Here is the input.
Amino acid sequence: MTALLECRNVSVGYDKPILENVDLAVESGELVALLGGSGSGKSTLLRTMTGLLPPLSGEVLLFGESLYDLPPEGRSELLTRTGTAFQQDALFGSMTIGDNVALPLCELTNLPASLIKEMVRMKLGLVGLAGFEDRTPNSLSGGQRKRAALARTTILDPQLVFCDEPSAGLDPVVAATIDDTLKQFRSTLGLTLVVVTHVIESVRAIADRAVMLASGRICAAGTLAELEASTVPEVYSFFHRVPPPMTTSRTAISSITRGAT
Here is the structure.
């Protein structure tokens, strides 16, 4: 497989580092979950991956190119091959759902209006919102708004999609529909996804691999089975919601952290 995204010895933060020495690769076709408690740096790392926050040190490679070494025009062009779904749906309340979804096409392409309309119709159908083109955001439920935002995120057919807490604030049944949508995007559109989440049920439902952030670093990376079997304290507590066993195997720590380096 080919890495679409790489972080090489990356440190991220603002006045001082929140995360340090992050080494991470996301392969084509993967769905990788970024996990961690509040303040662990998940969203900050995501901002750096999406071109919004330069790293304090290290290098971010996107499609094999050093993202922050590019001039602004080159960086913007490279980022058109990605899509980002924010924690808040970021839909424009003064526009219809159809116009919201069409916005990237209208701003970044010269496609005829008839083709744009058809692409919007197809994308809304894919997320279960067929016939919602003329609705306004305030007439939709929270889950419907999230799905409309995902339709807009993928309207330019990106290769790589970033999602920040897509299930946040939703009840379990609605959250499951978002998980199903993400899985459908990968299977139908062939997308690669990086999903920031703290919802264990979503991680178990969608992720091929998970990366756990704690104490300013990647403390574990691997398959869900590997992380759930880990006795690393932060990982054990996250997955089991109870304190870890009193004894921690050095072998278990070594094996679970190998994927983070």
